[in-house]
């Protein structure tokens, strides 16, 4: 298993959790972003800078993941593609996207996007907080433990 991170919008606290997990377990961690990232200097942690543009980082991840890889992303369409390729997709707030829940999440995302486009809804998710950080760390730990067996 390798961990891929859709790093442009990933909270710093989540990246720190991932760095520690990679150091502890030796799992390969790759952060993909369209900007330069400052990462720890460990052989199993690397960053890839892609060009700017819509979904460039997402497309890079989709083209390079393998079955069983874990992708950290809040991007629901990217999560759907990861699941389609038999990968795992985990939201930075600790929600695991699954074949059973991804269609409903895509439908809700599309509905909310439509509501925003006609002025019926505004805003986004609440600020990333301590509970989110803990939920993510717990979910990541469960996934890494299950995949070490």
Explained architecture:
The chain has 149 residues and is α/β, with parallel strands linked by helices. It is 44% helix and 16% strand. The chain contains 5 helices and 6 strands, in the order E-H-E-E-H-E-H-E-E-H-H. Strands 3-2-1-4-5-6 form a 6-stranded mixed sheet, with helices on both faces. The termini are close together. The model has no long low-confidence stretch (mean pLDDT 90).
Keywords:
5 helices, globular, alpha/beta, 6-stranded mixed sheet, 149 residues
Poorly predicted segments: none
Order of helices and strands: EHEEHEHEEHH
Structural class determined from secondary elements? alpha/beta
Biggest β-sheet: strands ordered side by side in the sheet: 3-2-1-4-5-6
Helix-strand layout with pairing:
Blueprint: E1 2-6, H1 12-25, E2 28-33, E3 45-49, H2 56-64, E4 70-72, H3 76-84, E5 88-90, E6 96-97, H4 102-117, H5 130-147
Parallel strand pairs: 1-2, 1-4, 2-3, 4-5
Antiparallel strand pairs: 5-6
Helix pairs in contact: 1-5, 3-4
What's this model, at a glance?
The protein is of the alpha/beta class and 149 residues long.
């Amino acid at each position: 298993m390798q961990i891929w991170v859709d790093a442009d919008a990933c909270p710093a606290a989540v990246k720190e959790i991932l760095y520690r997990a990679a150091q502890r377990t030796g799992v390969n961690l790759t952060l993909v972003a369209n900007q330069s990232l400052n990462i720890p200097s460990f052989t199993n942690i690397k960053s890839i800078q892609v060009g700017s543009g819509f979904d460039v980082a997402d497309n890079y991840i989709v083209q390079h993941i393998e079955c069983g890889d874990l992708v950290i992303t809040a991007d629901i369409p990217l999560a759907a593609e990861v699941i389609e390729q038999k990968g795992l997709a985990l939201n930075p707030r600790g929600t695991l996207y699954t074949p059973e829940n991804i269609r409903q999440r895509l439908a809700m995302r599309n509905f909310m996007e439509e509501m925003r486009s006609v002025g019926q809804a505004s805003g986004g998710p609440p600020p990333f907080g301590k509970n989110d950080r803990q939920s993510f760390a717990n979910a990541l730990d469960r996934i890494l433990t299950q995949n070490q067996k």
